[in-house]
Amino acid sequence: MSDVARPFTVALPTDQELVLKVIPMPADCNASGDIFGGWVMAQVDLAGAVLPARRVKGRIATVAVNEFIFKQAVKVGDILSFFARIVKVGRTSVTVQVEVFAERFALQGQYIKVTEARLTYVAIDKQGKPCPVPEA
C-alpha cells in the first residue's frame, strides 16, 4: 500500500446497516474514465430506500435529496458498500443518511468514504397520495 492511500482509509460504520454492495463496471464510466456521478446517485437512492420501505411496509417515493457529497472518485472494480440509518421519521416521511465506502481493487480490506447523502422518502398509498408512516 502506498502512503498516499493511508490518510483516506477508514473503518466501516458499526452504527448503520449495510443495505447494498455493488461493483461498478466499465459501462458505468463518464468521459473522464471515472464512474458517472449519476450512476452513484441512482445506487444511493436504491440503498436509501431499503430502511424506509421496511418501516412503511408499502410503497414509498423519493421526495428530496437533502444533501449529496462526492468525496472521492469511484473507479471501475471498486467494491462499494452502502450503509444507511434512519435519521428522522415524520408523519408521512422518513429521512435517511447514506454513506458509501469503496474498497479499491488494489487495496482489498481497506475502505475510503466516497459519498455521503441524506434523502427523504414519503409513504404513499395505492393512489400515489402521501399516507402516514406506521409506528415502529
From TrEMBL:
Residues 14-127 form the HotDog ACOT-type domain. SUPFAM superfamilies: Thioesterase/thiol ester dehydrase-isomerase. Pfam families: 4HBT. One of its GO terms (molecular function) is fatty acyl-CoA hydrolase activity. Its EC number is 3.1.2.20. Keywords: Hydrolase. InterPro entries: Cytosol_ACT (IPR040170), HOTDOG_ACOT (IPR033120), HotDog_dom_sf (IPR029069), Thioestr_dom (IPR006683). Belongs to the acyl coenzyme A hydrolase family. PANTHER family: ACYL COENZYME A THIOESTER HYDROLASE, ACYL-COA THIOESTER HYDROLASE YCIA. This is Acyl-CoA thioesterase. It comes from Limnohabitans lacus.
